[in-house]
Amino acid sequence: MQRTNKASRKTLRTIALGVGAASFLTVPIAFEVRLKQATQPLTDAWQHLPIEPRRSTLLGIIFRLPQVAALGLDARTTLQTLLTYPFDLIRLGAYWNRMEPEPGIFYPDELDWQIDAAERAGKHIILCVGPLKTFSYPEFFVPAHYLRRPFPEHTLIKPSAYPSLLTVATEFITRLVERYKHRKGIVAWQLEHEAVDPLGAEHSWRLDVAFVEKEVEAVRKADPTRPIMMNGFLPTSLPVRLSQWWRTRDQGDSLAVAQHLADIVGIDYYPRHALMTVGTKTLYLDGGKSPWQQRRRKQLFAWTRTHGQRLMIAEGQAEPWETVTTPPNPYRQGMYSCLPEHVITNYNTCMCWSRQEAPLYAYLFWGAEYWMLQKQCADSSYLQAFARILENASHHATQQTLPQVHED
What pLDDT is stored for residue 232 in this prediction? Predict the structure, then answer.
């Protein structure tokens, strides 16, 4: 009877601990969850928000050729229009399967004209050389003739398992860097995109750190003068933080790898995104004020400051992240995950970090192609919010020394 009572007390204590742990997690998660109508009326709130000064931080955009095509925009017109805005820095991508569509074919024309246009406009360039992962959906651009079968899920892509792929990947890197390293507009190379993270919820395979290290060696050998930027996703909510930790627990996530391999660590900052539709509404996670991302963010600032690295916002959310791949653009309406005013508030948040912790090297807005689509659909508020930031943030700007590029 005594043993039974002890067992019962132990069972009750276990249940109580489980309930307590569940409650501990439920409270912050509930604080981050929003059930909202996805489409929202557009307001003039973006016109009245204060603009945090950028100080020495460079401002810029990302240009995604695949996204331009997905939105039905003309690539040259879109880029030329965006380049008229007075920002400092643009991130361009080399999409391997577009540049090598068939065996023995190398087609650099698309990238050539983008670099030419950016340089004519006086912009500095961070060029992502991939090769396997480059920004823009589906974020995986290996030519089919180099990978006949998809990577098996739940595996690390190791050099020993894919030696021929590593060889052609490093050859592609070398070819790109050799081709463009004499272009004065290029101030840094980006290697991979969120290098060792899985591709969202769609795929669970990941690049092994050893694979990425070989790619880093290829870049540095081809051009030892320019810095390498590597980026990673900063979880802003508890569910995403737990998921990312669990899925990358064996070798760390892309931010951790960037801290050890890169000269510039890039944060991808998306504080609000959709999870699923629930009837006529949508369930969102909003972690903009979450303590979980604050702790990781402070660690990143401290690490890069101590180790002499630069820290930047490689992607600052400035377009909606809804339940579909291509962000919707309802006529004269906005989407809850990113309204025009959020272009400003997300920027302001990161500039406050920069003021409180250490100066950010750069802040790049993610979503410029979407702004152009909205403009075609009679809504210029996203572009105007961006223009407000450029105009007002620069009033208190201070000069920043760009990474030095040495001639061979």
Answer: 98
- For position 280, what pLDDT does the model report? 94
Instruction: Evaluate whether residue 4 is within a structural domain.
Output: no
For residue 267, the domain's CATH number is: 3.20.20.80
pLDDT tens digits, residue range 114-162?
A: 999 999 999 999 999 999 999 999 999 999 999 999 999 999 999 999 9
What does pTM read for this prediction?
Answer: 0.91
How far CA 160 is from CA of 156, 167, 168, 191, in Å, comes to: 11, 11, 14, 20
Residue 126 and residue 89 in contact, taking contact as beta carbons nearer than 8 Å: yes
Q: Is the dihedral of CA 59, 291, 244, 281 positive or negative?
A: negative
Q: Per-residue pLDDT tens for 30-44?
A: 789 999 999 999 999
CA angle 175, 113, 147 (to 5 degrees): 40
* Measured distance between the N- and C-terminal CA atoms of the chain, rounded to whole angstroms: 85
Query: Worst-scoring range by mean pLDDT, 178-187, 199-208, 370-379, 388-397?
Result: 388-397
The alpha carbon of residue 98 and the mean position of all alpha carbons in its chain are separated, in whole angstroms, by 21
Q: E strand or H helix at 59, and its extent?
A: strand 58-62
Residue 227 included in any domain:
yes
What pLDDT sits at residue 394? 78
How many domains does the chain contain in total? 1
Residue written as token pair 């591709």: 199
Question: Cα(133)–Cα(342) distance, rounded to whole angstroms?
Answer: 28
119 within some domain: yes
**Contacts with 372 (C-beta within 8 Å, 6 or more apart), sequence order:** 71, 73, 78, 81, 82, 383
334 in Cβ contact with 39 (< 8 Å): yes
CA distance 77 to 94: 19
Cα–Cα distances (Å) from 207 to 44, 75, 210, in that order, read 44, 31, 8
Q: Domain range spanning residue 149? A: 53-396
DSSP symbol at 395? G
Average pLDDT, the chain: 91
Q: What is the DSSP letter of 396?
A: G
Tell me whether strands 310-317 and 264-269 are parallel, antiparallel or unpaired.
parallel
